[in-house]
């Protein structure tokens, strides 16, 4: 999606809003990344969330080869990720344990597995909540 940028000198330019970014290394997100789809196709990468603020939203998609890509979404050390991930064959509950990542497990990973989380702005176990997911995710041990 394109949009116009107005500069202080009155000129107008064109820009492109980035909705998806490919991540190939361990990455720490900022609040400015909210709304982006984070695509991860490199094995054993950790994506660290910013401190939770109400309304921050992130979607993570595993674009690696099936069975070959572990993906970790990690909150800051004082926050947790809570939510229920339901598949036809199982239910996984992320209990919000602080300083524990949500992990798309390597052995069961499939291309396209995803998780969307929402910041609440609350502290501790309720800092982030899962709003949707596909594939098998687990809480870091």
Secondary structure: number of strands: 14
H/E topology pattern: EEEEEEEEEEEEEE
Query: Which geometry do the CA atoms define?
Result: globular
Strand content: over 45%
Can you tell me the residue ranges where pLDDT is under 50 for at least 5 consecutive residues? 1-7
Strand order of the largest sheet: 3-5-7-12-13-9-10
Count of discrete domains: 1
* Category from helices, strands and their pairing: mainly beta
Mean pLDDT: 88
How would you concisely characterize the structure shown here?
By secondary structure, the protein is an all-beta fold. Helix content is 0%, strand content 50%.
Topology readout:
Blueprint (H helix, E strand, L loop, with lengths): L1 E5 L5 E5 L3 E4 L3 E2 L8 E4 L4 E4 L8 E6 L8 E4 L4 E8 L4 E5 L6 E3 L9 E6 L4 E11 L2 E3 L2
Parallel strand pairs: 3-5, 4-6, 5-7, 6-8, 9-13
Antiparallel strand pairs: 1-2, 7-12, 8-11, 9-10, 11-14, 12-13
Structure description:
This protein is mainly β. The protein has strands spanning 2-6, 12-16, 20-23, 27-28, 37-40, 45-48, 57-62, 71-74, 79-86, 91-95, 102-104, 114-119, 124-134, 137-139. The chain has a seven-stranded mixed beta sheet with strand order 3-5-7-12-13-9-10, with no helix packed on it. The chain has a five-stranded mixed beta sheet with strand order 4-6-8-11-14, with no helix packed on it. A two-stranded antiparallel ribbon has the order 1-2. It starts with a strand and ends with a strand.
